[in-house]
Design a protein that fits this description.
By secondary structure, the protein is mainly alpha-helical. It is built from 8 helices and 2 strands; from the N terminus they run βαααααααβα. It has one domain: Up-down Bundle (Fumarate Reductase Cytochrome B subunit). Keywords: Cell membrane, Membrane, Transmembrane, Transmembrane helix.
Length: 221
């Protein structure tokens, strides 16, 4: 059956995906630098929060395959698809498959908990989150513990995500990395499926993310 390339990931999805990759990498590097790059660490965190806010908004008003309703599946469907990954290729999905959808949600939640807790913590020397001191010392300590522990979970999730992508690349010949660069995936058979980037959705999501970033940047610390 002849296959053809169809656009799945539009430019806002690709832009936000690779922005998250860069910002998360920067956060890990600066966070483990023993305070030498802590200022950059805060700025990377601000940027990460803005991108995630934009992505969540785009998950409701964005292009078809970017929307949460397209890749949030019933737990039974997730379990069944998980088995097909081990015993053979199951149903093909142009967008996120059920397991990939779970990974997206887990990463967004964990990253949000990470940057959210960072807004209330400090390095206890020079740099303080914009909301540091706005809550009790006990709550600040608890959020600080979360902020220092979560990177281990995040690194494990990212490693699992990369392994899953490589598994699909090798076993199923799905060029997922390339698809996230040019936005197109192969679909067998004739297809009239096309997606369009909703201008209002793109402007609103990216605009609100940028507005959040500017607001954070200008909070007096």
């Amino acid at each position: 059956m002849q296959a053809q390339k169809v656009l799945v990931w539009d430019w806002p999805v690709r832009l936000m995906h690779w922005s998250l990759v860069i910002l998360f990498t920067g956060l890990i590097i600066t966070g483990k630098s023993d305070g030498d790059f802590m200022e950059l660490h805060f700025y990377f965190g601000y940027g990460l929060s803005a991108v995630i806010i934009a992505r969540v908004i785009y998950g409701f008003i964005g292009s078809d395959f970017a929307r949460f309703k397209q890749f949030i599946y019933h737990p039974v469907d997730v379990f069944k698809y998980s088995k097909t990954l081990l015993i053979g290729k199951g149903e093909e999905y142009l967008g996120h498959n059920p397991v990939g959808g779970v990974m997206v949600i887990l990463l967004l939640l964990a990253l949000t908990a990470q940057w959210g807790s960072g807004l209330f913590t400090s390095d206890e020397i020079f740099w303080f989150g914009p909301f540091y001191g706005s809550i009790s010392d006990e709550m600040t300590a608890q959020l600080g513990s979360v902020h220092h522990f979560l990177p281990n979970i995040l690194l494990a999730l990212v490693a699992l995500h990369i392994l899953a992508v490589l598994y699909h690349e090798v076993r199923f010949k799905e060029r997922l990395v390339a698809a996230m660069l040019h936005g197109k995936k192969l679909k067998r058979g004739e297809s009239n499926e096309t997606i369009q980037t909703p201008r209002v959705g793109a402007v609103l999501s990216l605009g609100l993310g940028l507005a959040w970033l500017v607001w954070l940047w200008n909070i007096p610390v």
